[in-house]
Amino acid sequence: MANKGPAYGFSREVQSKIDKKYDPELEERLVEWLIAQCSGVERPEAGKTGFQNWLKDGCVLSELINSLYGANKPIKTIKSSGMAFKQMEQISMFLKAAENYGVTKTDMFQTVDLFEGKDLAAVQRTLMALGSLAVTRSDGNYKGDPTWFYKKSQENRRDFSEEQLSEGKNVIGLQMGTNKGASQAGMTGYGRPRQIINKNPENANP
Length: 206
Prior knowledge:
Blueprint: H1 9-21, H2 24-37, H3 48-55, H4 59-69, H5 84-101, H6 111-115, H7 120-137, H8 162-169
Helix pairs in contact: 4-5
């Protein structure tokens, strides 16, 4: 276990705000999913510390990501170790595999967030993003209640030919109006006064 001294001053205030982001109810949902997803995984002690200790050696996380890949497992060796650098190495392998699976960098926690308990809310965020991707894929590898995670919107990609793209540049959108029949008749040049001719002689000044 890493030696971590007490936080003082500003860092203590920041850590307090980060801790408030941690969601105990979300913890319960994530624990249920990981137990359903990873066969043979024991339930952790309830609470933030129990959740951290359950995941910090990287083994449960590695089992999780392997189960989502199906037969083509990205992490070949999962071995529990009491050595800190081995545990962090296992976490790093999970993070790399999760990113390759589709989790964005903005949803990814850092190794110290989990190992040193710097930001366990970020760990929850990563697992939520991973669960959402797994539910969205619908490839048969997800296990558990599909309502635990929201489905990500599917990309509606449309491919256009060079000719279609070229034609699109010449089209003026309806919201921009039309230039059909437009001309500069009756317009004066810049800097010249506009002449107003009164065609009704009755209204002319004497």
